[in-house]
Amino acid sequence: MAKIFQIRSEREQRKIKIIDYSNKLTDFRRICRLMCRSQIWNKDLYASLMKNYKNLYYHHIFLRDQVSRNSGIQESIDEFFKFENINSEGGAYLFLALKTFALDDHMSFFEAIKFYHSYDLDIEYPQEILDIWVESNCANTLWYWLVNEGGISNKTFELNNLIDVDRQEILILINKINSSKYKGKKLNRELLGELGTDFDQFYLPNLRELTFLNKLPFPFTLRFILNILLIIILTGVLIPLFLSSVRLFDTIGYIILCNLCVFGVAFSLFVFLLFFKRILDREISF
Fold first, then answer.
1. What angle do CA 191, 196, 197 make, to 5 degrees?
2. Residue 259's Cα: distance from chain center in Å?
3. Residue 62 and residue 90: Cα distance in Å, rounded?
């Protein structure tokens, strides 16, 4: 029982961090949605991406297993590579990454409505969604294409064209994510790049790991002990009680069945003692 309470306590502590990081991630996704506004992108680039690559996302390009799961997506990827090399100087990659974060498909209708405000949803993101965002390094695109030397120019992405309401909302969300680090900073490419790096290297990997740990089944030790207890209760208590209340066999048959029940209890205890040392070694090993 002590082990069960320990596991429950650990999961509760992880749950607190999961909710906190998930709320920060939702705010980051809200920022990505605002960065997909048409007024800050090159008009021709934005129109082409929205018209010709509406169903294409960043992880389709960089995670090959996603291609196999989406029939017909390879043709769009091939066309995208040709388009990107000629027209976008990297801006198309950034837009697809932002669109990947702003995707609402795994949310319910009412959660999607709240997504357009600043509320804390206290949702837990599915493991498969976190795997996609972490393994494709979507968040790192903000630093790579906005701050890194050789990134996209202002002709492709002009942050100053964002309307004041959206600029203020982005700053509010950034400060909500980490007020001690970002308070008082101006909205520019460097700030967005720093924010993307934080999510790429800290928030997303940690949220993914915590979510994975909280979804793990009971450890082998507990499952083994529970199975042994189940066998002992079944063969040592329930079956003998049933046989004593319902006379289905003669005396010899009854004695044989009772002996089999005793053997089942003894054998279960023997197996438990046989593996008990191994279980203890596993629990205290580092």
1. 100
2. 52
3. 14
